[in-house]
Amino acid sequence: MRFLAFCVTVSAILLIVLCGCEELLRRGDKAADATKDLAGTGEQFLQTPTGQALPGQVKLYAAGGIALASILANGWQEWRNKGMKKTTKAIVQGIESAAKAADPASENPVAAVKAAIGDQMKAAGCYDRGKKIVNQLKISSA
User: Fold this and answer.
1) Backbone phi, then psi, for 59, in 5-degree steps?
2) CA angle (123 as vertex; 89, 88 as ends), nearest 5
3) pLDDT above 70 (res 2)
4) Please, what's the b/e burial string for 28-64 (b: 16 or more CB within 10 A of its CB; e: otherwise)?
5) 109: number of Cβ within 10 Å
6) DSSP string, 92-140
7) For residues 89 and 51, what is the distance between their CA atoms, to the nearest angstrom?
8) What is the pLDDT of residues 28-67, one digit of tens each?
9) What is the pLDDT of residues 16-39, one digit of tens each?
10) CB 85 within 8 A of CB 110
């Protein structure tokens, strides 16, 4: 039974990762946050008198499940943050390289900045994902 639950969980994560659907990834983010909250609540419950009254084997399985859920949620968030870090770094490097190459007489170097950011994201290997993030940042800051 546990093996089946593990296989379903791993399959769901792989489906989300391979699908790359932004909505599914956002749901994964929300699920990771909720899992971390639930794990914290579970740890607190195990410290209560009611939690202490549970049989030892139940407490052991609960603690193991909480630890596994926390590890998976932290792993998910770390994986998702890598894309954001690459994108942000590419943006900063793109702006810096555009500033160095910009013509001082130019009033609006927007095209040069956008091209430099795109080049940096391509070099970092995160162009498609980064473009989606940049577009989301544009929408949220508008």
Assistant:
1) -65, -40
2) 15
3) no
4) beeebeebbeebeebeeebeeeeeeeeeeeeeeebee
5) 16
6) HHHHHHHHHHS-TT-S--HHHHHHHHHHHHHHHT-HHHHHHHHHHHHHH
7) 46
8) 888 888 888 888 888 888 888 988 888 888 888 888 888 8
9) 555 556 677 778 888 888 888 888
10) no
What integer pLDDT is reported at residue 1 of this predicted model? 47
- CA distances for 69 relative to 10, 39, 81, 96, 114, angstroms: 12, 7, 18, 41, 40
Q: Who contacts 84 (Cβ-Cβ below 8 Å, separation ≥6)?
A: 133
* Rg of the Cα atoms in the chain: 22
- Residue 66, both tokens: 């909480």
d(CA 80, CA 77): 5
What is the C-alpha to C-alpha distance for residues 110 and 100, in angstroms, rounded to an integer? 14
Q: What is the pLDDT of residues 103-131, one digit of tens each?
A: 666 666 667 777 888 888 888 888 888 88
Work out whether the CA dihedral 12, 13, 19, 24 comes out positive or negative.
positive
Taking the complete model, does pTM exceed 0.70, yes or no? no
